[in-house]
Amino acid sequence: MSNTLLLALLLSAMTASATDLSGWFIPGDASALTLAMQEFKAQPPPPHNRFSASAQRSSLYPTLTRTEQAFVQWNALRLGIDVASSASRYNASAQTFGVRGFNSAEYRTFCVTGHSAFSVLAADSPDEMFDAYRLFAPFHTLRLVSYSKPCGTALHVEMARHLTSSFPDATLLEMIDYGCGMAQESRCLAEMLRVQGRQVKLHLFDIPTPRKSLLAFTCQKFDGFACEMHDVTQKTGLPVAAHFVIATEVLEHMQPAQTSHFRTQLLGTLVPHGLFRTNTREHAEEFMHVDAKISQHWPSWLRQHGFSTVRNMILYSRS
């Protein structure tokens, strides 16, 4: 199927829903979906890291990441079908773009084409950017679900070690994921801390789209974490006394006023010795990268406000 035809089908789906340009169908009886998700019972967490490569290989669907498995379970509940059928649908859709599916360069090109085609409906200007994120939610969700970065890397070990050594065992570690997508890295870190016996609460922030239902199900029910969902708006505030804040592949999407607001919130929430995980490298100039040259101002701002570099451009500790 050509990209042109796929885009036409997606546009048809969008215009079929008069109340929502987000691009996918949510059942009219939302209470039935909510009840099904509330009744879902995950397996009790084992003593090992459920996000590791070895745990994935021994799972029911070894070719799917943990996040993809959560999506398959959520989509089965959403559509009222069995999990095996949901997995088959996901694999069939993903294979439209070859072996790597939604994580492929082909799918990324497809998304870029969609951005260009549908930007007539919503662009990345300050007044339209929230509408644009809702419009492109199905594109972005499938891409985000497919991310397959490993859990338990040297960086993850370093962050977990820093948090466990900096704060007493009885501390409830409050973790903020801002612009979280599917929160793979913060969920991974929470899992590593869980295995070590630490108590964690996740605060997941993103622009509200139908993905919010998927993310809440994934974090609260499928993973079983203490997890609170927060909508990102122009004036979003952050909880006080956070020990860890992550905002990766986010800063370049912020308009100047949003950057200023987020900086004020960051200073008000992150406690001394807390970690700020981000990516302050320069980014490519493309749709929704409204501040691609963040390397020219973010690292210097962090230094000026009492952050020390743990790993260049990506990890900082507050003094």
Characterise the protein shown here.
The chain is an alpha/beta fold and 319 residues long. The protein has 2 domains: 3-146, no CATH class; 154-318, Vaccinia Virus protein VP39 (Rossmann fold), CATH 3.40.50.150. Mean pLDDT is 89; it is low at 8-23. Helix 4 crosses helix 5 (83-94) and helix 4 packs across helix 11 (211-222). It starts with a helix and ends with a strand. It has helices at 3-16, 30-39, 53-57, 66-79, 83-94, 105-118, 129-135, 137-146, 154-166, 184-195, 211-222, 256-269, 298-304, and strands at 173-178, 200-206, 226-231, 242-247, 270-278, 307-311, 315-318. The radius of gyration is 20 Å and the shape is globular. A 7-stranded mixed sheet has the order 3-2-1-4-5-7-6.
